[in-house]
Amino acid sequence: MADLNSQTLPECFARLEAVFPLGEDGLRHTPPACLGCAVKTECLRAAVQGQQGLAVHEERLARAYEAGQVGFLNRWARQKGLERQKEKNGCWLRLRRLVNLWR
User: Does residue 37 lie within any of the structural domains?
Assistant: First the structure.
């Protein structure tokens, strides 16, 4: 893996809408400018693993359900898991903001 120093990272690093935007066809595509980047794999991985990446997982789940690859109960269970992750991450973000206000 590449050494990820904060000084060498591009400004768009791990910003989902910059490195993996939604295309006109409803699917996400990597822009051509990102294909030549030295840290593209780490960047995309970080973008999808972050809070914004939950939207990507929801989109994939919706497409799989529409295609008949996932049943109703399986989709429902996965959606509940994604909602729990959103709530958990949102809770920690709110707590972190409160702690920063007290400093």
Answer: yes
CB 48, CB 56: distance < 8 Å? yes
What's the one-letter identity of residue 35?
A: L
Strand, helix or coil for residue 28: strand
Q: Are 30 and 20 in contact (CB under 8 A)?
A: yes
**Is the pLDDT confidence value at 82 over 80?**
yes
Q: Quick check: 24 and 32 in contact, CB under 8 A?
A: no
- 96: containing domain: 16-102
Check if the beta carbon of residue 29 is closer than 8 Å to that of residue 21.
yes
Helices (runs of H) and strands (runs of E) counted in the chain: 5, 0
How confident is residue 89, by pLDDT bands cut at 50, 70 and 90?
A: confident
| Full-model pTM | 0.69
